[in-house]
Amino acid sequence: MTQPALGVRALDLAAPATFVENDVHEFWRAVRADSPVYWHEPTDRNPGFWVVSRFRDIQSLLHHEALSSARGNVLDVVLRGDDSAGGSMVAVTDPPRHRPLRNLIWSAFTPRVLGAVVEKVRQRTDELIAKVIELDTFDFATEVAEQVPMTTICDLLSIPAADRADLLRWNKMALSSDHADSDEFEALGARNEIVLYFMELAAQRRETPGDDVISTLAAAEVDGERLTEAELAVNCYSLILGGDETSRVSAICAVLALIENPDQWDALRAGHVSVESAVEEVLRWSSPAMHLARTAKADFTIDGHEVREGDIVTLWTISGNNDEAVFDEPRRFTLSRSPNKHLSFGHGPHFCLGAFLGRAELNALLSALVAKVGRMERRGAPRPIYSNFLNGYKSLPVTFRGR
Ligand code: HEM
Q1: Is residue 303 classed as helix, strand or coil in its secondary structure?
Q2: How far apart are CA 122 and CA 181, in angstroms?
Q3: pLDDT digits (tens, 9 = 90+) for 346-368
Q4: Which H helix or E strand runs over 151?
Q5: C-beta neighbour count of 20 within 10 angstroms
Q6: Which residues, at least 6 apart from 328, have a Cβ–Cβ distance to it below 8 Å?
Q7: Which candidate among 73, 111, 327, 363 keeps its CA 20 to 30 Å from the CA of 354?
């Protein structure tokens, strides 16, 4: 097994505090230069795992047939053992079932459904930005960033208005990254509530189908069979898991990066750079999901290292998104960057199913800022999220002044 080369400090990549207490971009730069693929030694808490840091290796491994997602696609889950949703939830299902399941979910996202959801995202974001301009100091995370993604997913799934408060409450309890001292049992209970809620809703929509995503999923077949209510429920939940926190942290990171790079904010406001191009740079810069995890189904070689069947392999997309071999001056926030083929939505067969919505949410935010805001100022230190997976902040005190 290979150790990181001399010069690369061994950081515990399973420990959430690592990502708050260290300059991780400096760490990844050294890793890419000295030991782009290395074996992360086991600790007294966790088994060892492979670390892959270069863009080209990550991209090629995301297509590799010897790598499986079925035991989980995030480090914490694969370190604990198996993902209980493996083989049922699209993100943690392997071929041959993955493709038809993914196609089914994709087919439910019709242009009509997505068009209506995006229209609501724009309206809601415009209203939120108009409201916060009136305030003195406010927390962008709670007042704006937190208000959009869950409501968007509820719109996408046509969740009845009366049920939304419960779903939002359970989801907050289920999120571990918000509290350093979160209660594991409370979180587990909340996740069960969400799955049970979706099972009931799926059963109702099966009985009285409507013109919505859950009804489409409930009526369709994969390999000649309908999805069970449990399968429907975990796949509905997967939209929350995939789309809530990632969208939230990217919005917070967008505002922080614009405040810290006033020349880029000016260029955006002046129309010297398109909102579409800015969205891609925000996604690269924020790298909301820092890694993707896989498990080897067979032995294979990567960059001269022998990976054995059963080994855990972690692909650090946050490092790939800052790989100097692909991105010129990667630690410069450059809204006009082109090309900008980042890995923030993954790559290959599991490429994000919500990429269109994730981009639309950021587009709505940047467009609303350009239309309504003149000056943005930070009013205190942003509070970082403690996580080995999610990159970003949970609080960002700011002041916005109208144009
Ligand atoms: C997959 C990131 C928004 C639903 C993924 C993957 C990444 C990602 C990296 C690949 C996972 C893997 O390869 O194991 C993001 C980011 C977002 C975002 C950064 C926002 C900025 C959304 C939204 C939704 C969503 C809004 C739902 C409406 C999904 C689903 C998958 C997925 C269902 C699994 C696809 C598959 O396995 O075939 N996302 N996502 N995501 N995402 Fe997103």
Answers
A1: coil
A2: 35
A3: 999 999 999 999 999 999 999 99
A4: helix 149-156
A5: 14
A6: 337
A7: 327
Bridge partners of 295, per DSSP, are: 68, 312
Query: What are the backbone dihedrals phi and psi of residue 166, each rounded to the nearest 5 degrees, phi first?
Result: -60, -45
Is the predicted ipTM greater than 0.95, yes or no? yes
Q: Count Cα atoms within 13 angstroms, Cβ side, for 131.
A: 12
Contact assessment for residue 62 and residue 315, using Cβ atoms and an 8 Å cutoff: yes
Measured CA to CA, the distance from residue 130 to residue 153 in angstroms comes to 23
Q: Is 245 buried (19+), middle (13-18) or exposed (0-12) by CB count in 10 A?
A: buried
For 40, the token pair is 């992360």
Structure tokens at 264: 């880029």
Contacts of 364 (CB under 8 A, 6+ apart): 118, 121, 122, 125, 126, 148
- Report the DSSP beta bridge partners of residue 305: 302
Q: What's the pLDDT tens digit per position in 190-230?
A: 899 999 999 999 999 999 998 889 999 999 998 899 999 99
Cis peptide before 96 (omega within 30 of 0): yes
User: 164 CA to middle of ligand 1, Å?
Assistant: 22
Q: Is the CB of 344 under 6 A from ligand 1?
A: yes
pTM for this model (two decimals): 0.96
CB 292 within 8 A of CB 347: no
Q: Is 8 helix (H, G, I), strand (E, B) or coil?
A: coil
Give me ligand 1 centre to Cα 302, in Å.
26
Ligand 1 center–CA 358 separation, angstroms: 9
